[in-house]
Amino acid sequence: MELDQNAGHDAGPSRLSVHPARWREWLALRSVRGVGNVTYRLLLERFESPQAVFAASVAGLTQAGVQLTVARAIVGFDEWSAVDTELERVAEAGVRVVTRADAEYPVNLTHVHDPPPFVYIRGSLAPQDQSAIAIVGARSASAYGREVARQLARDLAHRRVTVVSGLARGIDAEAHRAALEAGGRTIAVLGSGLDVIYPPEHRRLAHDMAQHGAVISEFALGSRPEAGHFPYRNRVISGLSLGTVVVEATEKSGSLITARCALEQNREVFAVPGPITASRSRGPHELIKQGAKLVHNVEDILSEIAAAVTFQAEPQDGAESGLEPAGIGTLEPDEERLVQLFDGEPLHVDVLIARSGLGPARVLEVLLGLELKGMVTQLPGTHFIRA
Asked: How many Cβ atoms from other residues are within 10 Å of residue 313's Cβ?
């Protein structure tokens, strides 16, 4: 497998907004033997910053719950020259490092068990990326699978939901491209360094994504796409997202690892059914047997994550796009229509859809807006009651 070690240098900003030196201790702590993501998280909880960790004594580190060998490795760390070399590469590549201390760090990732302490990034991460759905699937996707991925990504983009995937061939690339074509945001998570775009034919796609979203990785520049990297990559894909959609996957597909990560992170898992004779259908069908929600259109996704996000229709006449929280104020006509349907008893969302004459997605959108305004309360079983 040949890799272009210079791939990706033309993507993203050419200058850094901050001096790389501020990331020195962050990169150094991650390179200490024995400091993985979980230990790093523990250290940040106890000491608040990598600088404070390096200033601590062996006794102070062990009292905080760090193993003695790791504590000694931290205190005796002497590989600063290698860290400085990495910082030089970061500056030359025009890459930024977003740490747990930065407001830009993805909120969704902070809720997983082993979040990366920092990520390398080209492009930008926005608050609206909290409303994200991952679309993953087979690299050797069928025409059916590709079209389904494109349709779901387009519809999510029209609702201003960020599409997350892994930049791989097949389903991943189709989802990224469709989101961009629809004018939406999309994020790619790599299993390599940002200067090693793989597959190499997706260099242009990665460049475009950096202009309308982001390409991110937790792996240092120069890291090759080794097999062991991808399970880590997959957990970040699911960790960035409110839910993961598996379009096509064989029984041994890496997409099923992403789905398992989503379950472990208490995120939604969706699966698109396919022909029962196709091997690519076995993965999604098995997920459905295990309780994943069957998806045949975007409404099946939106209905499950409506409690976490407000969806808006595609902007018209060049209106500015973006996810905007519902505000408190005068009720809009559709909000007034739904409020008047409540008679003191809980109503199922299907009843509200039928009685209001509004579409399912619009009803879910309006209900969330009313929840944020304190007008209605959601009960178990997708029932709602006037607050």
From this structure: 12
CATH 1.10.10.10 in the chain: give the residue spans: 333-386
Percent of the chain with pLDDT strictly greater than 70: 88
How far apart are alpha carbons 349 and 250 in whole angstroms? 35
Q: Domain 333-386 is of which CATH architecture?
A: Orthogonal Bundle (1.10)
CA distances from 45 to 40, 98, 101, 131, 203 (A): 9, 18, 12, 26, 37
Residue 258 CA to residue 241 CA, distance in Å, equals: 11
DSSP assignment, residue 140? S
Strand partners, 378: 384
Among candidate residues 128, 113, 76, the one with its CA nearest the CA of residue 321: 128
Q: Residue 317: what residue type?
A: D
157 pLDDT more than 50: yes
Q: d(Cα 326, Cα 334) in Å, to the nearest integer?
A: 13
Query: 273-287, 341-355, 370-384: which has the minimum mean pLDDT?
Result: 370-384
Tokens of 39: 């230990």
Q: Helices marked H in 240-332 — which ranges?
A: 254-264, 282-289, 298-305
DSSP at 48: S
The DSSP H or E segment spanning 43 is helix 37-47
Q: Look up residue 262 and give its two tokens.
A: 């989503």
User: Would you identify the CATH topology of the domain 123-308?
Assistant: Rossmann fold (3.40.50)
Residue 335 — φ and ψ, nearest 5°? -65, -45
pLDDT at 270 over 90: yes
In the chain, list all ranges with CATH 3.40.50.450: 123-308
